[in-house]
Amino acid sequence: MKPVITIFALLVLIGLLLWLGLQMKPEPFPSYTAPATPLQTIPLPDDLPAPVDRFYRQLYGDTIPIIDSAVISGSGRLRINGIILPARFRFTHATGQNYRYYIETTFFGLPLLKVNEHFLNGSARLELPFGTSEGDQVDQGANLALWAEAIWMPSLWLTDGRVCWEALDENSATLIVPFKNDPSASTTEVERFTVSFDPDTGLLQSMRSLRYKGADSTSKTLWINEVMEWQMLGDYTQPVLSAVTWQDEGTPWARFTMLEVVYNTDVSLYIQNSGIE
């Protein structure tokens, strides 16, 4: 009987240690300290759909900042193969053009899995510990991510001339963004987001689009980006808590807490790197 009790106690102890390791939040990455240039502004356009106009007036008033780059850092939780892992992240954007992700999932606050993803000149490459993903479906998903993550610098949806808004109803609008923007092509491919706004605050609540889930996907899945909380961070009201859900999974696979954002630094070299450096 004693061996059985001992084995049971060891299993409970191991389970408890695993649980504790997955509850511990990692320390954030060191602050991004590259020098930034002052933000220029443009007037708020006067032809926006009503909920879009209200949203921008809530954030910026009558003048819209021109943001050429953004480095966003924070913490989060990611569900990988059914296991929810604590994480820390840094997303680097040359807005509307390129991005780089670096994510570390952690155990007892120590790095466990490292993710490097690049979307450069219209092509994406996702590097995971267990393989690499790239191809047309990955490019389509990365392009949607490029524009969805502009929620951290939403002035881009007004300052980039390739983007436009279309009215839907009093609390939603369609955001149209470019895809495979080839200057030599006679037409430009586009993607669409259905964007919903909180009827009480006017702030953005969710963005919905159809996205390939992986490199081998043959059909698109509804991809939902939600803002759970807005707060003042620096000079602007920011989406400090957000969540990402695939409709067929039903619950968020990723939750992000924004801790820092740095605008308008030179990211031309940094965006090509891997890791936190």
Give a written overview of the molecule.
There is one protein chain. The chain has helices at about 1-25, 50-60, 135-150, 155-160, and strands at about 40-45, 65, 70-80, 85-95, 100-105, 110-120, 125-130, 130-135, 165-170, 170-180, 190-195, 205-210, 220-235, 235-245, 255-265. With about 280 residues, the protein is of the alpha+beta class. The protein has one domain: outer membrane lipoprotein receptor (LolB), chain A (Clam). It has a 13-stranded antiparallel beta sheet with strand order 8-7-6-5-4-3-15-14-13-12-11-10-9. Strand 9 and strand 10 form a beta hairpin.
The count of β-strands is 15
How many individual helices?
A: 4
| Overall CATH class | Mainly Beta
What do we call the CATH homologous superfamily? Lipoprotein localisation LolA/LolB/LppX
> Looking across the biggest beta sheet, what order are the strands in?
8-7-6-5-4-3-15-14-13-12-11-10-9
Tell me the radius of gyration: 20 Å
Q: What profile does the largest beta sheet have?
A: 13 strands, antiparallel
> What are the secondary-structure elements, in order, as H or E?
HEHEEEEEEEHHEEEEEEE
Q: Structural class, judged by helices and strands? A: alpha+beta
Average pLDDT works out at: 92
Helix content: 10-25%
Task: Report the portion of residues in β strands.
Answer: over 45%
